[in-house]
């Protein structure tokens, strides 16, 4: 047992880390493995793979994800910024290489094959982007002679341009929403609020007019008769079929016919086999992480930490909201994973990276002032 009086780095970590949040995140990781065992065998068999192909891969990534998440929590704020910069640069280079040498799937070129694994560099961009955008906004406030806001705008434009080139409009909207939230929390003038809203509407209109897959998804959402809505319809049917208590583990039907039941529509599998009550427990876990993080952000006197914690929490929560909303037919279909639950190595490791940043920044360390931290 770790006593407060014992002086070593591990003991200091244990008594300063947010243990309730760490526990919930680790439980979510293993819940994702359980759901992968429920949802993925049918998908693997349908495409001619070993029944537990995806389960084995998911299980292989979990220890790596935990090691990344916990390892990062030992870092100080300065080291986190440096690591985020390295990850951001690596992700941007990876996204360029993906456009040049990557392979296409479902109408988008987002993946590159490395040693038999499919890597999606844009997933790792997200947590690093949030941390660096928070730092730029904080620096603009701390040292007005440094145009931090301008650099943050350039960062958004570069990341957005590469995402649109893939194309990945959903991730572009996600990053843009988190960036706008950070800009708002950093105290942007009212003029910028209306300007950003206007630019966002122009961007969405352009995507609707010039990108066929975006046009198709929005049209199918507004009028299902205009196209194929098989996946979202079956996902909704499975949620209704599960009722409050579910049909029981292994008894779901949606996973046998849905191509993406182990990724984008794993929430539907959860609802059908385990019921609405368990779904509400999972939603409660996401709410707990987001709300607790925002409360801890409010207590911080360091603007960088406050913005970074809030931004990472919003990124985590908003991605979950988008995935669940698609399953419930509350928004157009979008290929976005459910954090820590859906199958996908890049997504799993990316979320672990982001939550490692968040846990490190929320550790209860003495704050001696922002200037010393930089």
List the helices and strands and how they pair.
Layout: H1 9-16, H2 19-46, H3 53-72, H4 77-101, E1 103-105, E2 108-114, E3 117-119, H5 121-142, H6 148-165, H7 169-185, H8 190-210, H9 212-222, H10 230-242, H11 266-299, H12 303-327, H13 345-361, H14 370-373
Antiparallel strand pairs: 1-2, 2-3
- Integer average pLDDT: 86
Distance between the first and last residues' Cα: 35 Å
- Following the backbone from N to C, one meets helices and strands in this order, namely HHHHEEEHHHHHHHHHH
What structural category characterises the helix and strand content?
mainly alpha
Strand numbers in spatial order across the main sheet: 1-2-3
Question: For the report, how would you describe the main beta sheet?
Answer: 3 strands, antiparallel
What portion of the residues fall into strands of 2 or more residues?
under 5%
Helix content: over 70%
Strand elements, count: 3
Low-confidence stretches: 368-374
Q: Helical segment tally? A: 14
Radius of gyration (Å): 21 Å
Globally, the shape reads globular
List the domain count as a whole number.
Answer: 1
Keywords: Cell cycle, Cell division, Cell shape, Glycosyltransferase, Membrane, Peptidoglycan synthesis, Transferase, Transmembrane, Transmembrane helix
Protein name: Probable peptidoglycan glycosyltransferase FtsW
Transmembrane segments: 60-77, 84-103, 146-165, 177-210, 274-295, 307-328, 340-361
Family: Belongs to the SEDS family. FtsW subfamily.
